[in-house]
Fold:
Amino acid sequence: MRNLILASQSPRRIELLQYLEIPFEVIPADVDESSDVTDPCRLVEILSERKGLAVRDLLLRQGRDLS
Structure:
């Protein structure tokens, strides 16, 4: 089974994943979190996508297998 990648250093998210015994790796995404979006649900979607793409690009540059 592949590990989940957490693109955040949130202590609470780390704690929850550890509690659930879900294997994961922390790879913080260095992204701009500013936005003019005011809808919280849409903002979460936008920031999640930014972080996911940033971490994917980082892993590809490192030559990591993403399959």
Notes: The mean pLDDT is 92. The longest helix spans residues 40-61. The chain is about 45% helix and 10% strand.
